[in-house]
Amino acid sequence: MQNKSKLIPDRRKFIGRIATGTLGLLSSPVLSMHREALLEQEADNGLPKVGEYQWQIGIAKALITPQNEVWLAGYGRKRMAYGKIHDLWAKVIALKDASGKKVVMVTTDHMGMSKTVYERIFNKIAEQFQLERSQFMLTFSHNHCAPCLEDDLVDYYPSDEQQKKAVIEYTLWMEEALIAAIDEALHNWQDCELFAGGGKCTFAVNRRDNKEPEVPGLLAKGIPLKGAVDHEVPVLAAKGAGGHYLALLFGYACHPTTLDFNTWCGDYPGFAQIDLESKFPGTAAMFFNACGGDQNPLPRRELALCEKYGKMLSTSVEEALNKPMEIISSNLKTSFNFVDLAFEELVTLEKLEPIANGRSPLHARWAKRMIAKIENGEIFDTSYPYPTQAWQMGDELLLIGIGGEAVVDYSLRFKKEFPQKTWVCGYANYMAAYIPSRRVWEEGGYEGGSHLDEYGHPAWRWRGDVEDKIAASVHKVVNDTKAGYS
Q1: Least crowded by CB within 10 Å, which of 261, 272, 300, 391?
Q2: What are phi and psi of 198, to 5 degrees?
Q3: Which pLDDT value is given to residue 191?
Q4: What angle in degrees, to the nearest 10, is found between the helix axes of 466-482 and 409-417?
Q5: pLDDT of amino acid 47
Q6: Closest by Cα among 320, 249, 336, 340 to 288
Q7: Which run of H or of E encompasses 96?
Q8: CA gap 291, 434 in Å, rounded
Q9: What is the pLDDT of residue 28?
Q10: 8-state DSSP, 210
Q11: Backbone phi, psi, residue 179, to 5°
Q12: What totals of helices (H) and strands (E) does the chain contain, helices first?
């Protein structure tokens, strides 16, 4: 079983460091002793005086490095873990505006999150903390050196009963740790101001339009690479007393697949967070994946490259902090909507039987599971509920969350369609499958073609209106946040 006792001291240590100032903050006694000096420093920094901050923030984290024999996720094969490069984390940022409206965002080092896990976590926090669905965003970096989770890519791995039991055991342990961290964050509020900015980082490559073996040579020769990319690094900075950074939330559109070895590691996002927390003691660095469904870190497959990309990303965050940033006014509006994405064609016994006896073990496992469902009389849905979400933060910032794993066209589109600063998290709440734009759907290929079987759906492909459906839902949730908003 997972060792619960290891989590609580670690989480309490993190919160304790916030309270005592060892996270770069000032404790209440110190604040009282140095109030006049602090007021003068805040005036110099252009920050509000003590007691005049318009935002409040709660921060916590949970250690989620597995302590049982659960396999690593991704790549569709048995991957037993042999040690770790660094620990895996779930981190929580809770925000409260001047009216008392709250939101909670969780960032994790996981590869994916199933709808089963998302719904279970949400139902628990809704009951325990009275949060609505629109107030909660669960994100995952899509790191492929993280553990398997319950009901995520269920046919992907050659799991025996022992491994299936280990996956469920780990998942439940992780959920308990995550909910406890949310509880910590919601009961440890601090005054802050929020600032939005951005940098640029260039290691993400459109993998559809560039052949991986050719990329190093093209880069060495200075030949421009092809395809759509989003190299923006969005940065949200929470500043507390004296201008200390309490939290740095940043994003990037790229698969965390630099590594494919059998060792726990956060890939480039993990290294970036470690670097920022080292350079800014007392800061919680948190990463979200933007719309990186068709983006890879190239070249790759070396630990040194992974560390390099993490350093490049953290440097981009630092550069953003060193430039003028826009202050975010204290007003939160949230909205959430499920949109039904139609399947192009449902499976049939006639088409499944050859696959069940075919050469691909992954697809054979999927086909046999579908056949069993049909023989048991199950009627498949013709569509799938896809999550879309919007947080309007003041007049200045719009954060959109859509289910994994969306291609880069979505972030590029929504940044053009909405007038304010717009960030898009393309790995929010749970994994649905690859989410192609119309362009990618028409081109086909891995992200746009027949791949839904790998995600366990009773179909091979989305219907061609997938982008239209998602865009309409995103516009709906954004418009909902603006209703009556001033």
Answers
A1: 261
A2: -165, 155
A3: 96
A4: 40
A5: 55
A6: 249
A7: strand 89-96
A8: 11
A9: 28
A10: S
A11: -65, -40
A12: 14, 17
Strand partners, 196: 236, 326
Contact 63, 177 (CB under 8 A): yes
- Helix, strand or coil, per DSSP, at residue 436: coil
Q: How high is the pLDDT of residue 51?
A: 54
Q: Which residues pair with 425 in a beta bridge?
A: 401
pTM score over 0.85:
yes
Q: How far apart are the first and last CA of the chain?
A: 51
Tokens of 177: 């740790």
Q: Determine which helix (DSSP H) or strand (DSSP E) holds 312, and give its type and residue range.
A: helix 303-321
State the Cα–Cα distance between residues 321 and 314, nearest whole angstrom.
11
Two structure tokens written together for 404: 């994994």
Give residue 1's pLDDT.
Answer: 46
Q: What is the rounded CA–CA span in Å between residue 439 and residue 448?
A: 9
- Per the structure block, which two tokens stand in for 485? 């908003």
Q: What is the pLDDT, as a whole number, of residue 192?
A: 96
Binned average pLDDT, 10 residues per bin, the chain of 486 residues? 44 42 31 33 50 88 97 89 96 97 98 97 98 98 96 94 97 98 97 97 97 95 96 97 94 96 96 98 97 97 97 98 96 97 98 96 97 97 98 97 96 95 97 97 95 96 98 98 65
- The contacts of residue 425 (CB under 8 Å, 6+ apart) are 137, 139, 251, 288, 289, 290, 399, 400, 401, 402
pLDDT at 425: 98
State whether the Cα torsion 143-146-152-153 is positive or negative: positive
The contacts of residue 411 (CB under 8 Å, 6+ apart) are 230, 253, 290, 291, 423, 424, 426
